Amino acid sequence: MSKIMEDVNSIQFLLTRVRDGEQIDSIKPDYSDHVEKLDLINVFKAVLQVNHTNKDITIYDIKRFFEIHQHLYGHDVSEIHISDDMNHPLHVLKKENHLLSDSLNIIQLLVDDVENGEENLIDTLVAEVKRLGEINCHFNRKEKLYFPILERYGIYPLPRTIWKQHDQIRLLIKGLGNRLQKIDSIEFRNIRRTFDDLKTKCEEMILEEDFLIIPITQILFKEKDWLAIAHESSAFGYSIELDGRYRGYVGNQRVKPLNDTEQLQFGGGYLTTKEANLILNNLPVEITFVDKNGLFKYFNNIVESSEMMFIRTPLSIGRNVANCHPPKSLKKVMYVIRDLKNKVKETETMWFKTKDKYIHITYKAVFDEDDEFMGILEYVQDIQPFFELPSDMKRNVSK
């Protein structure tokens, strides 16, 4: 048996005893024997492996497991120790979770009061549930900034599990809002059950951040990773007000200028790389390219990330396309790629409305002159302005 599997089996043995309710004092001696000889990151990797393969082990068991660690070694793994700067990305996550917990407690009280007949509080309850949706930016930052870096350090199942959990919470928030709109025509127990499910899922999410995300990222992430997260977070926003920026933040790193002298052949003419880049960044479409190995390789910069129809930031470059999408839509994405790669279809198109935009998406396979598959091109544009064109033709230059 490999050393890794021995470690996993040892951790599973301890976690199973924790799950079964054995007293902490009786577990401590074996915990010390098995865990003390391991680097902390290897303890976490073993815990993640057990959690991934044994669905009976919950985040509550993992919390108790690491409470034993604190009893023995005086080290609280959920504590942020790498920075005292309250604008550090991890402190921001913590503060947003405190706000989420406070919001859930307020909604709990309002649900209780409305259930007890205080109908004058229904509008307040609806408003609080709507405000709860602001936590979505917290989820987006984790999915688009933290998860790509975790994957680079070899942590794969955890991001997928937590992303799935995020989607469940999003669905429950939406469901609770929809049920409140029908409060006069449905039994209140349906609202109560949806809120209880939502509160449980949010509490589990917070524990997973405290006892998995926060300690693992503190061990693995380098300062350059935190700087990248701090720099790119503004594209997704925050559910709290920040009182400054992370002090390690240094702004945009100076990028090596593109070649403006060498003429390279593109299509039917010649361009410098600088000219080609400027053209791509001035097209009225958002372009992304996934190469033949399924790696997200390129996106153009026509607007700031926060203004994009589909927000993309540099941290996602190099990420496998399968990990760039929510677990719930992965199967659909892989079907599209398969059909385009095998020439079942030339293109795949989708469209939908959002606020004042009508988003049109096209996926197209790219083949070279030898008919070898090179990757998938996606281009996205807002076609709402086309619907608003007057019926009269326009052939003259605007004055």
From TrEMBL:
Gene3D superfamilies: nmb1532 protein domain like, PAS domain. One of its GO terms (cellular component) is plasma membrane. Residues 88-215 form the Hemerythrin-like domain. InterPro entries: Hemerythrin-like, PAS-like_dom_sf. Transmembrane segments: none annotated. This is Hemerythrin-like domain-containing protein. The lineage of its organism: Bacteria, Bacillati, Bacillota, Bacilli, Bacillales.
